[in-house]
Design goal:
The chain has seven helices and seven strands. It is of the alpha+beta class and about 280 residues long.
């Protein structure tokens, strides 16, 4: 006979006659988002896409780029925390991140005048950088999936405390607000002169802007880092296409294969797209 204590017995829930909560549900996208993202993309995210008037959709069927940046799924329980005193600025964490949520920049010290108190930076290493330049890694807290590949790839450990690396996973909730402000400041920093970037060297190549960001790929995806790298190196000269590789049905009726699969699921889905554009408006087609 089953143990009655282990049986889940339904309990009555009394629903109050009026709302007693002290918080409001956040909007699906930021009020600062572009008009189309707020009126169309945001409504689809909120599950109200069927109510969206046809008149709001583009007549030619095209959708704007970079809309995944407004989705803010806020999935991660932990996010990577950078330790500038240990870091050798090798770029491996940026290289392996499937979602482009950790970025690097090199910038003049004069740009730090309005930096938040919690914004982290260090003198830029490497002979190719001028002495007055500083370096920073920055994480986007609400776009991180908490996969931890960046920490796994980090080769630097504290000699006195082996469990401490140049990147360590930390609870996201207490860091969310400060890192959100740090990310906003990071975005405003100027991009490093592309003509000075040595694209064959990992630390330098990772300074280039990612034009594939915050995709809906699975946590720890092994495909998207390659797309992100291609967008770093060739982003404003790229064309991305999903191909149907249907075999000849007359030769083998069972050989039909659809080759879109993941590439279209994380790169060509609705309502958002991770393919983005640079400051000049150029990006993958």
């Amino acid at each position: 006979m089953a143990d009655l204590k282990a049986v889940n017995i339904p309990e009555q829930v009394i629903i109050p006659e009026q709302v007693i909560s002290e918080f409001d549900k956040l909007p699906p996208v930021s009020p600062a988002a572009p008009d189309f993202v707020r009126r169309v993309t945001g409504e689809i995210i909120a599950g109200r896409g069927d109510r969206t008037p046809v008149s709001l959709f583009p007549a030619d069927g095209t959708f704007p780029l970079g809309t995944a940046a407004w989705e803010k799924r806020n999935l991660a329980l932990k996010i990577p925390l950078w330790e500038p005193d240990l870091c050798t600025q090798c770029g491996k964490c940026v290289f392996v991140c499937p979602h482009s949520v950790i970025r690097s920049k090199v910038f003049p010290a004069v740009q730090l005048g309005e930096a938040p108190e919690t914004f982290k930076y260090a003198p830029a290493r490497g002979k190719s950088f001028e002495e007055e330049l500083h370096f920073s890694y920055q994480v986007v807290p609400e776009d991180c999936t908490g996969g931890g590949l960046c920490v796994d790839a980090c080769p630097i450990r504290d000699r006195n405390k082996s469990e401490r690396k140049a990147l360590n996973m930390a609870i996201q909730a207490p860091l969310r607000e400060q890192e959100r402000k740090n990310w906003a400041f990071f975005l405003e920093l100027p991009d490093y002169d592309r003509s000075k970037v040595k694209e064959s060297a990992l630390p330098s190549a990772m300074l280039l802007q990612s034009l594939f960001e915050f995709s809906g790929a699975c946590e720890g995806c092994g495909e998207t880092p390659y797309l992100r790298l291609a967008s770093h190196l060739f982003g404003d000269h790229m064309m991305a296409a999903n191909a149907n590789a249907n075999a000849n049905a007359n030769a083998n009726a069972n050989a039909n294969a659809n080759a879109t699969r993941c590439s279209s699921i994380y790169g060509g889905n609705l309502p958002t797209t991770p393919w983005a554009k640079n400051r000049d408006g150029g990006g993958p087609a």
